[in-house]
Design brief:
Elements lengths: L2 H13 L5 H9 L4 E4 L2 H5 L4 H11 L8 E4 L9 H8 L27 H9 L4 H8 L2 H7 L2 H15 L6 H16 L9 H18 L4 E2 L3 H8 L7 H12 L4 E3 L4 E4 L2 H16 L4 H8 L12 E3 L1 H5 L15 E4 L4 H8 L6 H7 L8 H11 L5 H4 L2 H12 L46 E6 L5 E6 L3 E6 L4 E7 L5 E6 L5 E6 L3 E6 L5 E6 L5 E6 L5 E6 L4 E5 L5 E5 L6 E6 L5 E6 L4 E5 L5 E5 L6 E6 L5 E6 L4 E5 L4 E6 L6 E6 L5 E6 L4 E5 L5 E5 L6 E6 L5 E6 L4 E5 L5 E5 L19
Parallel strand pairs: 1-2, 6-7
Antiparallel strand pairs: 3-5, 4-5, 8-9, 9-10, 10-11, 12-13, 13-14, 14-15, 16-17, 17-18, 18-19, 20-21, 21-22, 22-23, 24-25, 25-26, 26-27, 28-29, 29-30, 30-31, 32-33, 33-34, 34-35
Helix pairs in contact: 6-7, 9-10, 11-14, 14-18, 17-21, 19-21
């Protein structure tokens, strides 16, 4: 989309004027125009987030000195107000690359909902005092009445509400729509039963929303009617009945040119939601009853039966145009999977449709009816199934956050589902396709993180045994893997970024495709939980250390155990390869560091000197020095070339959980359970600086590739970024549901 093409098309279609854009630009700069971009969310919901941002800034090109513009958008399009303000303040830089000069600034105004006094005053003009009191005394109705569009619908639905029927937004629409259609029906009209009207309005609404046409000219009605009622509309005289009937409908507005549009967009959304839920065969009884009302040509004495959406409404007629007699509707049955694809596969359901659809679901049968549709996506390609699985799952979760608990969703296609407020206990997502799905930032408390060496991807392991891969640039989840039955303690990318390794307390190492999330292999061999994994620099070997006191080397190609390195007498908590791949270091709870030859697996030497567990080890960039951090509160340096202790750094008052060399090897950093980080000079052995700010133990640290920033992850649920030159905390990242146990930078230092 370009703003020039948008306005040029507008002037040509509405006024048949060509080549007007330059004149428009001049009038706009003179302040002679007020530009209103209404319903930005309706367009934005059809594209991805970045395209939405780019479209916004394309429209923003008209905001020049002297111009006046208003853009409207439903607040739910930006669930997080911060995101909306970031967009409007040009903080999302990727979207402003084509702007010249300073980006325009905007005033963000939020329309306030009606106050109690305003609701009472408005209702008082149209209802008796007793009715006003009843609405004001119902918290659910009062909440709905705060929305301006809902007030008229509530008044229309009052008889049902006063009768004590259930109340939610979808049911207010149900009661109001039923009353409107009943009132619109004229008994002398042909084939204008309430069921026919319902079918027509549902199909018309779907046509409008799916094609993004909010009006339809009466000249198009005969064609639409012939498509919907091919066997029943035979003569132009009958079409005239329909045209006259449409003019009398209170839910459609007709202008002087014969264009019909809904009285409010939300009516379209209600009818589309109705069509979707009925087609899924999971509709609640009171909503199904709307389709039963005033249906014509019924065998009243026959037992009701189930129908699909089309099977109930698209009826055969005899030569005289009289519809066949059918038995009454029992319940709607699910439409065939292939016939659901045009309805649900093309795009994500709009939030407004979703909000109206989920109350229509029958709580007692929704899981039984909809889970088989999710399973059916296993046999389809992602291109074929599109968003169908994701939309069905989202409907289930919108009704209940527990809807998927204990479900086997392995291999299903669940594109675009928002899982952030759901409960996923014992859900099997193994090999499921979860493109564009959104999860909470840390589902079970972050236990380990690793950055891809080749892409802006971050892998996160958590306390529930799940592994996630996120695109850090877009904030979207790419891969979600559930396969471990215990805490996931360590994750690592292969050097080429194609494979992910995960180690768990369940005694297994799993290798995953970093792109698809499919499990490549499961490696078993440890007799107890595994603490650490690391790829060799060439990516051919994987090392793991575990609670069984061993270090094991595995072939990445076939998962075979190359050898087991035995010698530690307690848990092996940390492993690290030397830069030249010739040696492997391991730190253990037996208070030692061991150096192993990769050539023959022999222990080259053992470094003794710590008085308590060795929790972290790392090689210097040259590979000549090995550093270890211990539960005894010290940091020790060892010569790799000889069995020599170089020096000790003291200063921490509690366990040293993590150690790391700067890229130039001149500075050493350590993170401790005392809540501090310390920077040590390798030149003169002094403590350069103490970094304070965390209120919990510092579990993980990592230098950026340029060495100017140090990141720290803490049990206080935050990540802090520190400037190495001055020791200032330049940023704090939080909102994690559990302590952060590992952190790392990507190769260019821009992504954490």
């Amino acid at each position: 989309m370009t703003v020039e093409s948008l306005f040029s098309e507008f002037f040509f279609r509405k006024h048949e004027i060509l080549n007007t854009y330059s004149a428009f630009e001049q009038l706009n700069r003179m302040g002679k125009l007020l530009l209103i971009f209404d319903g930005f969310d309706e367009r934005a919901a059809r594209v991805n987030r970045q395209a939405m941002i780019d479209n916004f800034w394309e429209l923003a090109k008209v905001v020049v000195p002297g111009a006046k513009a208003i853009l409207t958008c439903r607040t739910e399009h930006f669930p997080d107000a911060i995101e909306g303000r970031q967009l409007l303040n040009a903080e999302l830089q990727a979207s402003t690359k084509n702007l010249t000069g300073e980006p325009p600034q905007f005033e963000v105004l939020e329309l306030e909902k009606f106050s109690d006094a305003q609701i009472a005053a408005l209702l008082g003009r149209k209802a008796q005092a007793r009715t006003v009191q009843e609405v004001m005394g119902n918290p659910q109705l009062l909440d709905l009445a705060r929305r301006p569009v809902m007030v008229d619908l509530i008044l229309e639905a009052l008889p049902e509400i006063e009768a004590g029927k259930p109340v939610d937004m979808a049911r207010v629409y149900l009661y109001a729509v039923t009353a409107k259609m009943e009132r619109d029906i004229k008994s002398e009209r042909t084939f204008t039963s309430l069921a026919d009207k319902l079918y027509f309005l549902c199909e018309l609404s779907w046509e409008m929303l799916s094609t993004d046409r909010m009006s339809l000219n009466y000249r198009a009605f005969p064609e639409r009617l012939q498509q919907l009622f091919a066997d029943r509309v035979k003569e132009e005289r009958e079409l005239d009945h329909w045209r006259y009937d449409m003019m009398g409908q209170t839910m459609l507005i007709r202008n002087s040119e014969g264009d019909y549009s809904p009285a409010h967009r939300s009516l379209l959304e209600f009818f589309v939601a109705y069509k979707i839920v009925a087609s899924l065969g999971a509709m609640a009884e009171d909503f199904t009853d709307l389709a039963r009302r005033r249906q014509s040509y019924l065998d009243e004495v026959a037992e009701p039966k189930g129908y699909t959406w089309e099977g109930y409404f698209r009826r055969q007629c005899d030569e005289a145009g009289i519809p066949e007699v059918i038995v009454p509707l029992g319940q709607f049955e699910s439409t065939a999977f292939d016939d659901l694809l045009p309805l649900l596969s093309r795009s994500k359901l709009a939030r407004a449709v979703l909000d109206l659809a989920h109350p229509m679901l029958d709580r007692n049968t929704v899981r039984e009816q909809l889970l088989p549709l999710l399973w059916a996506t296993r046999d389809q390609s992602l291109q074929e199934v599109g968003y169908l699985g994701g939309n069905v799952a989202q409907l289930m979760l919108a009704q209940s956050p527990d809807a998927l608990i204990d479900s086997d969703l392995s291999g299903t296609k669940l594109q675009g589902v928002d899982f952030t407020t759901t409960r996923l206990q014992r859900v099997n997502f193994q090999n499921a396709h979860l493109a564009d799905a959104v999860f909470s930032k840390a589902i079970g408390g972050v236990t380990s993180m690793a950055f891809s060496p080749v892409q802006n991807y971050i892998a996160i392991g958590d306390g529930r045994g799940s592994l996630q891969v996120w695109n850090v640039s877009t904030g979207r989840l790419l891969v979600y893997c559930l396969g471990h039955s215990g805490v996931l303690r360590s994750v690592a990318f292969s050097p080429d970024g194609q494979i992910l390794a995960s180690a768990s307390a369940d005694k297994t190492v799993k290798l995953w495709s970093a792109n698809s999330g499919s499990c490549i292999s499961e490696i078993e061999g440890h007799a107890a939980g595994i603490w650490s994994v690391a790829f060799s620099p060439d990516g051919q070997i994987l090392a793991s250390g575990g609670d069984d006191n061993s270090v094991k080397l595995w072939s990445v190609a076939d998962g075979d155990c190359i050898r087991s390195l035995e010698g530690h007498t307690d848990w092996v908590v940390s492993v690290a390869f030397s830069p030249d791949r010739r040696a492997l270091a391991s730190g253990s709870n037996d208070n030692t560091v061991k150096l192993w030859s990769m050539a023959d697996g022999n222990c080259i030497r053992t470094f003794n000197g710590h008085s308590d567990w060795v929790i972290s080890v790392d090689f210097s960039p040259s590979g000549e020095v090995l550093v270890s951090g211990s539960r005894d509160g010290t940091v020790k340096l060892w010569s790799v070339l000889s069995d020599t202790f170089i020096r000790v750094f003291r200063g921490h008052s509690d366990w040293v959980w993590s150690v790391a060399f700067s890229p130039d090897g001149q500075t050493l950093a350590s993170g401790s359970a005392d809540g501090t980080l310390r920077l040590w000079s390798m030149a003169d052995n002094s403590c350069i600086r103490v970094l304070q700010g965390h209120c919990g133990l510092v579990r993980s640290i990592a230098f950026s590739p340029n060495g100017k920033i140090l990141a720290s992850g803490s049990h206080d649920r935050s990540v802090k970024l520190w400037s190495i030159p001055d020791g200032q905390c330049i940023q704090t990242l939080g909102d994690y549901s559990g302590g952060i146990k590992s952190a790392a930078f990507n190769s260019d230092g821009k992504i954490l």
